[in-house]
Amino acid sequence: MAPPPPSSATVSQPVIDSASSAPALPSTPQAPDVRKRDALTQPLPVVAERLPWKHTFISLSVPNFRIFAVGHFIAVIAIWMQRIAQDWLVLQLSGSVTAVGFTVALQFLPSLVLGPWGGMIADRFAKRKILILCQGVAAVLAALLATLALTGAIAVWHVYVIALVLGLVTVLDQPARQVFVNELVGPTHLRNAISVNSTTFQLGGLIGPALAGLLLTAVGAGWAFAANAVACCSTVAMLLILRKDQLHVSAPTPKSKGMLREGLRYALGKPTIYWPWLMAGFISVFAMSLPVILAAFADHVFRVGAGGYGLLNALVALGALAGAIASTRRRQLRLRSVVFCAGMYGAMLCLAALAPSLATFGAVMVLSGFWCLMFLTGSNQLVQISSNMGIRGRVMSLYIMVLIGGQALGGPMLGWIAEHADPHMALLVSGGVPAAAAVVVGIVLARKGALTLKVDVRDRRRPIRIVDRTAPASS
Length: 475
Fold this sequence. Notes:
With about 475 residues, the protein is mostly helical. It has one domain (about 55-470): MFS general substrate transporter like domains (Growth Hormone, Chain: A). It has 15 helices and 4 strands. A hairpin with an 8-residue loop joins strand 3 (about 450-455) and strand 4. The longest helix is centred in the first third of the chain and has 32 residues, at about 65-95. The protein is globular, with a radius of gyration of 22 Å.
């Protein structure tokens, strides 16, 4: 069982700016089924007090989540190895950055097209069984890719086909994985578990690209694919040994007409879902295909080869790891801070495009990774906590559809810009559009919430802050 929260903690609703309140709708009588649906989808409470440092990773005190986190960590290292090896292999086989972007598109296109159906399945069936099935199929695909690479029979079209099938697996895997975290820890430690998952992912993202760079230089891409096949099998084993009696399993949602439409209507009706959803769209299309641009910088700008490509990705992951750890210290979830982090990520990418040297470029990549993860964890937490378990699978599938599926559009576009225009221009577009979108959204939210920026040089602790213009002035 999960330990109780610290006695000093207080339970409250998610802290949402006044700017995020939904516009008033005409009062209409509600049918019983609508009232029942609204009761089912009320926000969950969160712990809003800052935890002591010893509780930074308190969700790992839950035995099932600890087992899951170990398996997830191993899997993340291996999937990063496969991702880096796959992109570099396509670049070497084709000589085209656009081809790398097309590979990304094939892997993420199914989530863009079929994502909501994956969420519906996650709501209707056992999440653990879905994950076991998906990881088993992923192991077979990785083993096939390894066999083709190690025998020298690999061609670009092989990578395309396997990337597409893996994308179909992701349609089911990602919504189930997001919701399964709640079944592991329950609502008390959900926010912390999301941050721990992000920390695990980024620590794996720090190790995986570095290992991939070593393997690509020493023995080739095939062994990176083989490692991922073994890791997928280990994930299946971890899922099988979980204590089912300690899972917080919710009753599956029965099949009904209009389930997908209901999930979409619900997501659009909550500002704490649709604003992060909108920003995730800009980040996904323009800034989440960063490895494609880094491949161009490693090969055409800095000429540092496969090892340098792995290093650049590792530097991004290093900053992201710091961001994931920092996110566990967040006391409150604020919509405006999520938008701010998205804008800072875009700004860092623009700054990197102007970097005069490899060292400066690498340093800015660390900062960009930090702000990227601050946005992703805050956005994920806000969306999950704003939706109840009865509809969360569909809500998260829509979020994932935007976050992952958008890369199917952005990957080829940025790859084409990097190849036919210039890698620096591709990076400017990658960061400039999300940064501009964050400014516009921030202005809209500020106007809706009567917020303004106040500068007070006499206040040493908070010389610059956002205040509510309608609040009475303090004496």
